[in-house]
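Narrative of activities, Objective 1.

The group set out to show that a structural description can be obtained from nothing but a protein's sequence at a throughput compatible with the screening campaign. Below is one input-output pair from the validation batch, recorded exactly as produced.
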Amino acid sequence: TNLNDQYAKVYPVAETEAVASSGDAADDPAIWVNSESPEDSRLLGTDKQAGLYVYDLSGAVQQFLPYGELNNVDLRQQVVFGVGNGVDLAAATNRTINGVSLFQVSSTGEVSEAGDFPVERIEPYGLCVGYDENGYRVFVTYKTGHVEIYEISKAASGAAYDAELASTLKLNTQLEGCSYDETQDVLFVGEEAFGLWRIDLRGNEELARRPIDTVESGTGLVADVEGVDIWRDTADAGYLVASAQEGDRYIVYERAVPNRWVGTFSIQMSPDELLDGVTHTDGLTISSAKLGSEFPEGLLVVQDDADGKNAESQNFKLVSWKD
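Output recorded for this entry:
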């Protein structure tokens, strides 16, 4: 019996072309929203053996940047450094350089390299970013349970970015997926073998961290707790989604305190059998932006560890949030 039969089912609307590397390669996506033409938005997806893919919303490859072993990627738009126009800035952990690589996205969705910075520990793993009154920050997670928080500034020359380690957090065991909530100044982090954490970064975070859910709690959350992201409504309304990798399913919680469990779903083969179901998701990302007729209430993108009959090929699946 398929245990996911007890949960809600949704179906992919589209899928990306597979990454070129074979085996365990595709890892984590991010969504860039084209505010002038939402249908022309872009997906960034990492190939952790080779670099960064850029896809359109049909899943077709628009660019590939061979920039090393990029694991997790995230971005924020209209980031202002000092004075001047905002930039759309993405960051990705890069094991090749033991650091973080930065990328700018143009107004038409073209991605270009924007420099790198080293990190303090060996093997940067997961990553998420945030942009608010604290500036543009990069949160890097590690298999050791550490989270390093870097503050990014524009270099004096104006041609590059500088990074400063602002603080370090520590959980007990291996981390990867995370998502920063600007409205609440909260970092959501997946501790893979334990559960999902909410860390309030205002005040004494040691006193303001608590598990939202733990594996085998009855919600459907199981190890590994992997991708984490937020469907953002007004204020602090919306939903938090985490992938339960070994269970081939996704757990949904309210974004606001107390982060009540809402439900659990899996992504199954499309009714026309043209798009395969999703298994063992690593990274995921969500946007609540209206991205055309296919995605009128936003878009969920998830990594799929086996693209159909070709088990050696991995890609990303696109799901309408309305579904």
